[in-house]
Amino acid sequence: MHRKLAAALLGSVVVVLATLSGVAQTNSKQVSDAAASARGIVRTIQSQIAAASASPFSLAIGGPDGRIYFAVSRATSEAAAAAVAGDISNRIFSVVPGQKAVHFAGTGSFGFLGDGGLAADAEFELSSIAFANADASQGAPPALAPLHSGIAVGADGTLFVADTQNSTIRTIAGAQSSEPMITRSLVGKWAGASNIELIAPAALAIDASGTLYISDVRSNSILAYRDNALSILAHVITPGAIAVNAAGTKLYVASPAAGKILEVDLSPNGIANGSSIRALLATAAPSGLAVDAGGNIFVADSSANTIRKFDAQSGALTVVAGTGVAGYSGDGGPAVRAAFHSPADLAFDRAGDLFVSDAGNHAIREVIEIGRPDQSTTVILGPASGQFGNVVTGGSSSAQVFTLTNNSGVSLTSEVVTIAGSDPLDFSQNNTCGSSLATGATCNINVKFNPTIAGARAATLQVTDSDPSSPQTAALTGFGDDFEVSAQTGALTTLNIRQGTTATFKLAAAPDQTFTGTVTLNCPANLPTSTTCTVNPTSVTWPSAPGASQNFTAAFTTTQKTTSIVSRPPRFPSRPIGLLALGLLALIWVAGRIAEKQRPLGGNLGRSRMRPLGVALGAVALLMAGCGSSTTISTAPDPTPLGTYPMTVFGEAQNASRGVTVTLVVVAAAE
Fold it and tell me: I need a surface site. Which of 228, 338, 384, 574 has the fewest CB within 10 A?
């Protein structure tokens, strides 16, 4: 469109119909500045989306379970799309992080049938348009901004679909409604008479009060649908992506033809003054918009291959994702170092994670905690998902903590924490929540992954309570892997061994196609008496990828009975008898002294006879007191009993064990 016309439309905004003075404002509880989000890590949530047809797609996140939806628009005619193998355009899918996308709505056929029936059987005419920015008219290379049929999710799980070529907004009822998964035309061509005609509805946004905002690309209008009626908020040249803040007071509109982001004031004052509008910032090809809980605006620029953040407080504009060069790299690292290719639609979850329609790479990518989390929601279960990685079947992961926060202003009652979904038996939980939770309080839920079989496993952590947002949910995913312990090829698992010798079993540990980590190797717990065991090495590791089996040995050493005779030098074991002899000697000496005093003078015959006797008795006494010798018979500990001993050598990893049975046959030692 000509620049003068663009300037005229942008400079004179016309408000056509009724105001939205009744738009409710929610009490948004802001987090402190200290909790402002930092740049996060980028990862791919879903890849190979519409790779065959290269169709663009839109995103939406919401509902009681915070589910992700994406709608694949058609980029070609129906005949051309049908000729492309594997074309999935003109359909809507849902996805839980860590799982494959699930077909949610649309047959793929172009049409308008399906109202009153299941969403999977409905026909749509989802469309995409590429707009050149305003500089293209001055000879500059056009920066193309894709615009596609948008989707939005209500708090109750209702999915709103801009059926662009059918000029209709359609709904798909949520799982908790009275007609789950049923398609209806809400407003527009196929919904009966309306106070305003829809021509080509494209982008959608919904606020906390349930007001639906619509950009009509053909009528250059921004509209609101509330209380079963449409109203025009503003006229904007080629309105593209739109986003509304949490309070429902500001609506942001991307105008690719003008290369600008516009702000529409939805507050009562703004409505009364003609829904005041202003140009907020310039960008070459604005293709996606999202607003976090702090009011910060995130803009995808498909031509610059970047995502920028407009800070609501400072007004600073910074690149938060993308290098500026088209590509597909950077998963696992900072978003500013990651390469995107034509990023398009954007959407935030409650945790402040930003999801990106990386259109040129046919992928949905997530930038973790780049936005401020939504703490104004009455009751929050966070984080929104738990990914447990690989765990051995039969084992158990470490616990991940989920926190239930009650910001509702009233106490929660009738709380029940359960695990539901496709594989509930593969996860377990314990919690501190009890049956009630006071206002402003939190409780923790500890979840573990306990896979029962190998492969991808998924479930949903679910809290039901008295709050209208019940149940609060978080997605759980993990992958069961395995390893085994066995004998080496050709090696025996039964060995005969004589007492006092060693038998060595040749064993091996082997991973399955997904196992990584360390296996600790252990001896059996039921060793025979007087037998020792040694494994070598004590552990084996596959650090980053599965590989070949690794060998190890288990050696069992038995004991035989041995006897030895030990002779010691003479010692003096007769000490009591010797002491008795010494006592007798003392008595004899005393008697001799008495006799000596009584003998006649000069008589010495008795003395001469007593002295040799005393000496002899003294010698005998000394010998009796300390004489003697000993002999000791030494026997080794009990030998390993004869017999047959089946035992299990086992490996441990991720709180699971695998083992191999070996049999030790103990026979008598050689004579």
Answer: 228
